[in-house]
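Hi, here's the filled form for the chain we discussed.

Project: internal
Contact: R.S.
Residues: 380
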Amino acid sequence: MKRFANTLSAFIGAVLLTIVAVIPLDAKRPKTLKDSLSVDGPYILYTDSGVRVITVDGDGNISDRTVPSLSQGYTFTVTDHRGKFPFDVTLRPVEREPWLYPSQPEKLFVMSDPHGRLDCVVSLLQGNGVIDGNLDWSFGKNHLVVIGDVFDRGNDVTQIFWLFYELQRQASLQGGRVTMFLGNHEPMGFAGDMRYAKEKYPALAKSLSMEYRSLYGKNSELGRWISSWNTVGIIGGDIFVHGGLGKDFYDWDLPIGEVNRQMSRAIFMKNADRKALSDTLNFLYGSFGPIWYRGLVQKEEKRKPIAADSLDMILSRYGVNHVIVGHTIFRDVSTFYGGKVIDVNVDNRVNMKKRRGRALLIENGQYWVVGDKGKKRRIG
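And the returned structure, exactly as it came back:
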């Protein structure tokens, strides 16, 4: 009997150990929406009852308040999702930039696809003298170009939008420029396509019982600003576009100003609605339109790679020497068609760590691949 009792005790002990192993004593509580949130905002929405301002603090607490108004010149502080990189933003009137700048300044700095990674943006711009230690404009009368895709993948989407919004204001006061071009992820975000968004963004929308796209709607400050961005533009001897310009684009023969107006016209729509609205929008927002086309840098048949003579026809039509794009990611800033096409999209985080190329600097007519510490190598 004693032997049986000992055996039973040992068996029970083994079962208890197994249970403890399967269900750890320090098992965490189920994850909530609040657990997914980090510092974010502000989202500024203009409503019939006033101005709605939504922010998230470092503990995941949401502030959602409505005030009668916010004056032009209203200033607020923004930080990254960890509460780092503080900078002030001042509200201002929003206007569409010209799509044509006939001449280039002494320095033209070109980057693309920041995708919600503010630390990478700050490192790159500070390392090349575009901003200073306080994240203020320090590029004088020179020109910063960002070829789309702020949305998705990282945790600082809203913060990057606000940084470029503010730098655009500061640059203009010094005679400089910040030019933003639409990528494919801006219309995706506006259409509610959240496939590549960090968990914090749908969690915030769900907590507010609203669609995420509504935070960037036509009555929001950031929505108004982003919808004013051009899709295609020319600065000096270069044409800029997020995806690319193929033979189909050439055959459509649309004036650049019309392309930009049409893209903005439909940016707040769902993708199916854009395509149904007109054949022009169906093309512009489609796979071979300017924000999605990859045939300037990829040779697979499905990409409709452009023939060299067709590329020359595009360059001749617009009186430029290069097409500068983002969208398609490469190990380093890359050139194609004998340097006539330059792709500036890289893995920003990896390239920052490995000290590879991250952007393009055009200085006094010379083209340089640059990293986070300035000039790296000359192109051509």
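Let me know if anything looks off before we file it.
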